[in-house]
Amino acid sequence: MKEKNTFEDNMNELGRIVSELEKGDIPLDKAVKLYGEGLKLSAACRKQLDKAQIKITEDGGEAPSEE
To answer: Which helix (H) or strand (E) holds 44?
Structure first.
């Protein structure tokens, strides 16, 4: 997982991991590894959403003016 992925990149990767885990036909070691990666991606998405919410709240929901 790259450090600077976009929210969309992280969600797509998380979806891929979930799909692979749902198949249920992977070895336990790989499933545990994927689960750990999924937790990290989930935390990264939550952090990105929190930052977006703070920005929206601070800006009053308005786009910054371009001068």
So the answer is: helix 28-58
